[in-house]
Amino acid sequence: MTALTPRELFFDYNATTPIAPEAIEEMMPFLTEEFGNASTIYAFGVKARYGIERARGRVARALGAKPEEIVFTGGGSESNNLAIKGAALANRERGRHLISCMTEHRAVMEPLHWLERYFDDELTMLRPQRSGAIDLDELIASIREDTVLISLMFANNETGVLHPIEEVGRIARERGILFHCDAIQGVGKEAIDVNALGVDLLSLSGHKIYAPKGVGALYVREGTRLESFIHGGSHERGLRAGTENVAGIVGLGRAIEVVDARREEEMARLRGLKRRLAEGLQSALDGIDVNGDLERSLAGTLNLGIRGISGPRLVALAAEEGICIAAGSACRTGGTASSHVLEAMGLPQVDVDGAVRLSLGHWTSEASVDHLINALPPLIQRVRGSL
Ligand SMILES: Cc1ncc(COP(=O)(O)O)c(C=O)c1O
Hints:
The protein has 2 domains: 6-17 and 263-386, Aspartate Aminotransferase, domain 1 (Alpha-Beta Complex); 21-258, Type I PLP-dependent aspartate aminotransferase-like (Major domain) (Aspartate Aminotransferase, domain 2), CATH 3.40.640.10. 42% of the residues lie in helices and 13% in strands. The chain has helices at 21-31, 43-63, 76-90, 106-119, 136-142, 165-174, 194-197, 246-284, 311-320, 340-344, 349-353, 366-386; strands at 70-73, 97-101, 122-126, 147-153, 178-182, 201-205, 216-220, 288-290, 301-306, 355-359. The strands form 2 sheets. Strands 1-7-6-5-4-2-3 form a 7-stranded mixed β-sheet, sandwiched between helices. The protein has a 3-stranded antiparallel β-sheet with strand order 8-9-10. Helix 7 (194-197) links the parallel strand 5 (178-182) and strand 6. Helix 2 (43-63) runs parallel beside helix 8 (246-284), helix 3 runs parallel beside helix 4 and helix 8 crosses helix 12 (366-386). The chain binds pyridoxal-5'-phosphate (PLP).
């Protein structure tokens, strides 16, 4: 048997991904000889501008948007901040009531709380159903005359659970409410068309789709009023000042094209591997539950509630064997705080304490899944014995 590569023992693709070789290849000239500032008019600048605009077209195509509706940012968190703060502050006359869900990423929660703290906005945070998805009747009941924005994620980063985004889009549109979707975990994994979804704003992040870290994009529907909060030059139509990260943007453009082209085949493969993994672990040991919904979730995301263990302890033991897994989100890995996502879903405390997230991606093979099925049970027994 050939030895597995470190990459094959990486089961944390929801935290980050390696950069696709195709993206690296297109980025290289912009990291070396093509160092121009895209705002200049000589050849170096023109090549940089061309790289950026080509990437804008590619991102737009992947989302069913127009190129001028894409704003490049410094990553997913920044896209969420721009969407939420920007929309709430630019549309004050429409109201100050915001709706979101208790399972959102902190990059959505914190901008919402910031608006509450400094601008007296009022916030309704919906509790999800046990499956992790929101209840549309509860959403409708929470809408007020002064609701200005609904912000809901496409897929949850801890459980992979999908919200009924298309229905939410319809509800928002019928009532003239702006709709922002954090699709950072959804892009490249599910079909995303901004018109079919009915979103006004949609965030994505490079490093979740095999592009570099520190680059992202925000889709802004034509005509949506948005306040910028990084002030300076007039880059990105005045919505995001600062000399562009040309190589990062070029990498993002190529990566989104690559993930889009292989998406259907790749997701069918990952869904098969996820089922194999869940079944393999559950038949090896008792007391392993799936947190969330095995089927109505991202193909490669598996959140397990392993009874009688502490998730972070198992993560640490696995790391000693070169296996990369997570206990909830990356922000929480290594920490002791409990998962706000699983708690909001109302799961039993044993499943929250023993939560482990296994997220699969391009370099996950059948051999690597089988390795995990063999390697994890003895480690779980060790943690169970030591508690
Ligand atoms: C759902 C979700 N939103 C936002 C973010 C933040 O994105 P970034 O790391 O690019 O700032 C992440 C990444 O952890 C995420 O999974």
